[in-house]
Amino acid sequence: MKVKSPLEVYKFLPQTNCGECGFDTCMSFAAHIIDRGVKPTDCPPLVKESEKDPKLKKKLEELIKLTSPEIAEVIIGVGDSAIKIGGEDVLHRHELTFFNPTAFFYDVWDTMDERELDERCGKVVEWKKFYVGDYLTLDGIAVRCTSNDPEKFKEVAKKVAGYGKPMILVALNPECMRAALEEVASYRPLIYAATEANWKEFLELALEFNVPVTLRAKDLNLLKSMAVTFKNAGVNDIVLDPVTEPLGEGLRSTYERVIQLRRTAILAEDKDIAYPIMVTPLVAWTIDADDVTKAYWETVIGSLFVVKYGDVMIFHSLEPYTLMPTVTLRYNIYTDPRTPVQVEAGLREINNPSPDDPVFITTNFALTYYTVESDLTSANIKCWLLVLNTEGLGVEVSVAGGQFTAAKVKDLIEETGIADKVNHKYLVIPGLAARLQGAIEDETGWNVLVGPMDSGRIKGWLEQNWPPKK
Ligand code: SF4
Asked: pTM (2 decimals)?
């Protein structure tokens, strides 16, 4: 995206504040274009006028160009489970944000035993882990053609499609790919892969079935020339695979190729290679080693390219020791640095508390909240927990920055009606907010006790301090 501020976008809009787009003002619409919530074509007057006036048409086209992401966005799958890959604007998250998390696919193959196939697909569909208020999940299934039999591949692709997850079809044989596409093209799978040897047939398949296609070549000049050929032929949904090598020099040169692709696309604005990048950590399973070592290297490769520009990946291991580091790292890299992760403010009842139990207060920064909540729950502490809206900031920062104040605590006490739920007026504040003790007492009329610095120590603290000595 070449424009970075709503004001720059605003110049292209009709500036009538008509509200037809669903926003009160053109400036508000412009802000949502920057956030990728809407597109320029979501402004009806702009579209209508541009149909009548060639000058306005040019202006609209320019705005679309200026607001398009640097890296093309490709959609795999259909309906609610469809995922977007690519669509990034920057090399480093802190420059703006990353928009589309790396998509994780897990392989199955068409010579698998049916029961094993069902088990693996089921695991990909069902796997989830609760983390900082969100569920971490897996994105899709990559069906590998190991039979080289078009009928077999087609049959397994159809079965996998029934699981409702986005798919990658992996076959170098165009006949096998065609057979599978005849059955599942409507699910919009990503096809993998067009190479120097089969690109003509794959180009025909991508055009005929209108599906996204992966181009695969270690030589970046060849990769670029294939991308130009596909683009000129009318294929827009392209993914680039510069070939993943698992160990030693091979891994180092894989890293260099990926970096070069993305840097050239963004810094040199080379649109010919500005596409999402495919990385295949499952190549670690070609290493001559035991299974745990292979999974270890698969995790290393996956993690490396989550940090550096892998937009879509194919994994093999579904072991927790591969899943946990990769999905957690992905979550952290793709969290929007402009928006602190926060939970809803209000009152929580922990372990079914009674009116005699203590009242704690914490902030709505998700990491703080879930740490405190989990410490209280796991220690079987019955209590009331007030969650203050500190705009997603932690205790120390919000006390210093003025988001955690005595006046806001008073408002929260009133809004939640906590005084009617307990038969005391004692509030326990975090140790890191100790300096607000007097101010909160003055503002609220409650007795304020200063709790420990660390919520892990609340149990020991309660043994000494609760019930309070009158
Ligand atoms: S529809 Fe267009 S002109 Fe009307 S408020 Fe929205 S952006 Fe402005």
From this structure: 0.84
